[in-house]
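Lab manual, section 2.4: Encoding a predicted structure.

Procedure: take the sequence of the chain (117 residues), apply the prediction step described in section 2.3, and record the output as structure tokens. A sample record is shown.
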Amino acid sequence: MSYIKNMEHEKVHTLKELVSVQNGQVVSKTLAQNDAISVTLFAFDKGEEISTHASGGDAMVTILEGTGKFTVDGKTFLCKEGETLVMPAGKPHSVFAQESFKMLLTVVFPFEGKDGK
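Recorded output:
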């Protein structure tokens, strides 16, 4: 059974090469998703955005190429290649591409085991 999808296993990858910027679009490629975690690659064309929303888990973005503008609970962050930002669960946030950029999004959700903890 494979838990990571949409990429070849037992091969070295450059993540930014697994997703392409497309004119006028936000492109996403899910690599893993279950009740505990979601891992998704994104490519934003210049001027594209994901409007304000909140997540049930902590959302961590790592910029793979370019620069992205993130607004978290009213605070703005410009993140460039190699930088990482954590957006806490429940806080409103949005993403805007001042220029084309690529990112890896990892969302970690609260875990409730068999005993509810």
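Check your result against the sample. The two ends are 26 Å apart (CA to CA).
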